[in-house]
Amino acid sequence: MKRDYDYVVVGAGSAGCVLANRLSENGKYSVCLLEAGPPDRYVWIHIPIGYGKTMFHKVYNWGFYTDPDPNMLGRRLYWPRGRTLGGSSSINGLIYIRGQSADYDRWAAQGNAGWSWQDCLPYFKRLEHNDLGPGATRGTDGPLWATSIPTRNELVEAFIGAANKLGVPRVDDFNTGHQEGVGYYQLTTHNGKRCSTAVAYLKPARHRPNLHVETDAQATKVLFKGTRATGVQYVKHGQQHEVSARQEVILSAGALQSPQLLQLSGVGPGALLQKFGIPVVKDAPGVGENLQDHLQIRLIYEVSKPITTNDQLNSLWGQARIGMQWLVSRSGPLAVGINQGGLFCRALPDEAATPDIQFHFGTLSADQAGGSVHPFSGCTYSVCQLRPESRGTVRIQSTDPLTPPSMQPNYLSADLDRRTAVAGVKFARRVAQADPMRALMKREHRPGHEVQSDDEILHFCREYGATIFHPSGTAKMGPAQDPMAVVDERLRVRGVAGLRVVDCSIMPTLVSGNTNVPVVMVAEKASDMILADAVATREPLAA
Of 266, 357, 482, 508, which sees the most CB atoms within 10 A? Predict the structure, then answer.
């Protein structure tokens, strides 16, 4: 491979694949995309239900664990992250959600010009190929598919009907910016297969002579000349390599590894860097702070009829039937994953102007996401608070780039988060007991009928709560007067030149829902900014 490029992008995940495509599209600039993991050739990546096979995979999943969280009974929580082309978009639950218009208006109100809902909407439309057809907020020609679930499911229909009885309207499109309602999710699938960013964006661009994709390439350090980023050091098969960037280095390694790489490279809290003997390029106290995540609380019910995915997976005949269904027509349970039903509503209606909780309703049940299904007919009500106030940290604990950083989420450390978690569990129970769902719910397996008081419910949340895979905010975007802002509104790292962060790290506050599609939008918008800034030979030092 050549050793110098216009752009070096670290991380071929949800954002990196988008950047690789858009920055190489006009043929004027050369792009090197570095991915620590292997190519996405594993068959279960591409079968939608297959994320159960990748959840704990030693090769395609980083398999991180948090520090013991004192708010979660001292538990270390498992945090899966994608380690292959497509990143977490290759192993996630495929849910197609943008968030609420108020999320982006909030970003803009915090001093991030150009990030309001109306500013972001053109990029949401540009990335999208929505099978619902044209609409005021929909795109129909983009590379990333938003596919509706074609077959109605008896259990999901009962879930929708029960929510209707509680005053939640049925909707077909959760992505207009309004969001409140209940219905079937759309999925990032196409023709019954996963539509990751590697499939949607990278695959069509791989033939370009100005794009080089390097897999099994673990970035270890951003290289600087003074305060200007000039390239990236990486390790491949035990050998150290360097690649230089004439224009910019762009970090798209995710909310855990982008701040880790910044800190290892001398950009981060000065005291932390000095503790490990790392020369300080830029004392940036916000790097690794502001960590946010959605905590999912999973209620499990035994179903009174054998109509669940458990029943199909627990039978050899059932497995064979759904396997043939996918092979012959790319349809059935293998083509739609696990969580089909979605619900956005207000658990604390006196405090929330917009939905504050989200449900992922699954037609199967297991002790943990990606685990073996229960021997009984089961379903799962997974509820999470949309805008948590708890904040955590990501900090290096070694100068070895292969040593995972310390990850402390501090779940449920904020009063609002605790009250919303309890209210969310109570609302889930109300749905389970409302007609027509009531007749299908044989018993509550977890938390169980004996858990009733607010204190008991909160203890259940601490004991069984888990990530829903949306860590964000650790290199947040913010105005110059915010000392904790890591990047400016053009996603340039403040205080240095030639370096940007483009991934979930930059979110000042977590969006109300799944993060994959918002990150694709961020990368689409960032690509326009980067190309516009390329008119200057050298990018000026960010304020």
Answer: 357
